[in-house]
Design brief:
heterodimer, A: Rossmann fold, 10 strands, B: mainly alpha, MetI-like fold, globular, binds adenosine-5'-triphosphate, binds magnesium ion
Chain lengths: 285, 272
């Protein structure tokens, strides 16, 4: 299953991901270099991202926090290649990202599973495209990883929101992307499911070399999951502060009671508050 | 899961017939009641008019039908019409669907050809008959042309709608998963457009069936349209009615058949 991907049929874009795999953290370094994004709004240029510089080391789990509208999704879209920045560039390892390529994958709040494919075919699609010798087998492995092997022959619409998100994660991981971008992936789930999904995500991530960028509004979630937290400045978006989370792994929800955790939480709340107030003050005038 | 077995496994024989007649949820009994009401109204009208040339009774019409069936005339006309519909429809679909997909994804082609499509679309199939006769004479070929024209626009416009409504997030997801051009078309774009294409196919087949009768009234010497026209000239009104009812029955059967097939063509829709 794993060796299969390294055969020569693999398209050029995925060559770099083919050789090193599980438990190796030498793929998936992200370099964001002076990226800015301008949107046209009613004919006027609107700056959504000021030049952003950001380096994420291979294998890190990094969260983006910031008030609504500060540009988290925009930055994620640039990193994934779905949006061309107005200036600047993005590299994953040594490959410039100018369009969506298999070096990375994304999981959104609203899943992007293919409704016309059964769950198993959704997960097998990537491995099949990238020349895996046994896409079905790989898909089954990943489905059991997220505990959904029994639902393989259903269509996405027949699953609950939480299950759909798990399939989306399985599908994204099944091609072993060096980078996984997640934009509020658990935003639509209830608190209980959400907690369980967070634990599951950490378990799965521990087995992969994948670099994760995780966007959320939930400060506890961000601290619990991440190695580092990027708090964003707003209007236009940029990096305000990067905070390390020096809590050892494996982590359990218990760490939320620890002193380090509360200290980081207070710091993050302060920073976000500053930015949120900025929006309020600017609209009042 | 419940829903899946409910729609696909359940239903049984009655469900199947109801689906075929195209009245989902209606029992066979209701269909019979509806037809009985139709026949009673018809017979009352025939009794009031009391003139079999203007309106023969249901009984007379049934006699005519029996004769047309036993002589084999009805069957040969039905087959002639069906052949024209199937061929014209197939030609239309095989051009309309790929063209619509190309136009949905290549903006230059779209800009260049969409105005032509918009210009031709409002022209009813019947208006093409003079050209069809000039170009193809009398018989099968002009009828193929007319049925194809009639089916083309509903199929094309729906397929195009499907093509432009393919979601960006699905295209991107496929790119992240390493999809090549071929897989992108065959496994993402086409299935994503399929619900629209299928609607176009159902509407197109109905249009095509209506158009074949029109074409045969003028441009053919066989088929249900020809039979109706010929019977009118001979004042055999009962035969006209047999022809009309056959057209209605076959038309609704065809559409109902396609609606029944839908669960196989769009299996993921059947589960919702
Ligand atoms: N396609 C677009 N056209 C114009 N403006 C846009 C577009 N996409 C985003 N924006 C603007 O760019 C800014 C950043 O948006 P973005 O979606 O990145 O914010 P966000 O941090 O993800 O917010 P949220 O937390 O609410 O998801 C917002 O002001 C938004 O209105
Ligand atoms: Mg967002």
């Amino acid at each position: 299953m794993i060796e299969a991907l390294s055969k020569k049929e693999i398209p050029e874009a995925s060559m770099t991901q083919s050789t090193d795999r599980l438990r190796q953290s030498n793929r998936g370094a992200i370099h964001v270099d002076k990226v800015s994004v301008e949107f046209k709004r009613n004919g006027q240029a609107f700056s959504a991202l000021a030049p952003v510089d950001l380096n994420v080391e291979a294998g890190a789990f990094v969260s983006f926090l910031g008030p609504s509208g500060c540009g988290k999704t925009t930055l994620l879209n640039v990193i994934s290649g779905m949006l061309r920045p107005t200036t600047g560039s993005v590299q994953i390892d040594d490959t410039p990202v100018t369009r969506p390529i298999p070096l990375c994958n994304v999981v959104f709040q609203q899943h992007s599973l293919f409704p016309w494919m059964k769950v198993i075919d959704n997960v097998a699609f990537g491995p099949q495209q990238l020349g895996d010798g046994d896409p079905e087998g790989t898909a089954r492995t990943f489905l059991s990883l997220v505990g959904l092997d029994k639902f393989a022959t259903l269509y996405p619409a027949q699953l609950s929101g939480g299950m759909q998100q798990r399939v989306a994660i399985a599908r994204a991981l099944a091609t072993y992307p060096p980078v996984l971008l997640m934009d509020e992936p658990f935003g639509a789930l209830d608190a209980q499911t959400r907690t369980i999904m967070q634990e599951e995500l950490l378990k799965i991530w521990a087995n992969f070399s994948t670099t994760v960028i995780f966007v959320t509004h939930d400060i506890d979630e961000a601290i619990y999951l991440s190695d580092r937290i990027v708090v964003m400045r707003t209007a236009p978006g940029s990096v305000k502060e990067v905070i390390d989370v020096p809590i050892p792994r494996p982590r359990t929800p218990k760490i939320m009671q620890s002193e380090v955790f509360s200290r980081i939480r207070l710091r993050v709340i302060d920073l976000i508050r500053e930015e949120t107030l900025k929006i309020f003050n600017s609209t009042e005038r | 899961m419940m829903n899946l077995t409910g729609t696909i496994g359940g239903g049984g024989r009655q469900g199947w017939i109801a689906a075929v007649v195209g009245l989902a949820g209606t029992t066979v009994i209701w269909i019979f009641a509806s037809y009985a009401l139709f026949v009673v109204t018809w017979n009352i009208a025939a009794g009031v008019l009391d003139n079999p040339v203007l309106l023969p009774s249901a009984g007379l019409t049934l006699d005519a039908a029996a004769q047309l069936i036993s002589s084999g005339i009805l069957l040969s006309d039905v087959l002639a019409s069906l052949k024209r519909v199937v061929l014209g429809f197939a030609m239309a679909a095989s051009i309309a669907i790929p063209l619509a997909m190309l136009m949905a994804f290549f903006s230059t082609l779209r800009r260049l050809t969409m105005p032509i499509v918009q210009l031709l679309r409002p022209i009813p199939p019947i208006a093409w008959i003079p050209l069809a006769v000039l170009w193809f004479g009398i018989g099968d070929p002009p009828s193929y042309f007319i049925t194809a024209i009639a089916a083309f626009f509903p199929i094309f416009l729906n397929a195009f709608e499907g093509g432009i409504s393919v979601e960006k997030r699905h295209i991107h997801a496929a790119q992240f998963l390493g999809a090549g051009r071929r897989a992108m078309i065959m496994k993402i774009i086409v299935p994503s457009s399929m619900p629209y294409i299928w609607t176009g196919v159902i509407v197109g087949l109905g249009q095509s069936w209506m158009a074949v009768v029109t074409a045969e009234l003028i441009a053919a010497q066989s088929g249900l349209g020809y039979m109706i026209q010929n019977s009118r000239i001979n004042l055999e009104t009962a035969n006209v009615l047999v022809g009309m009812i056959t057209i209605g029955l076959l038309g609704s059967l065809m559409v109902a058949g396609l609606r029944y097939l839908e669960r196989y063509v769009l299996p993921w829709k059947a589960t919702q």
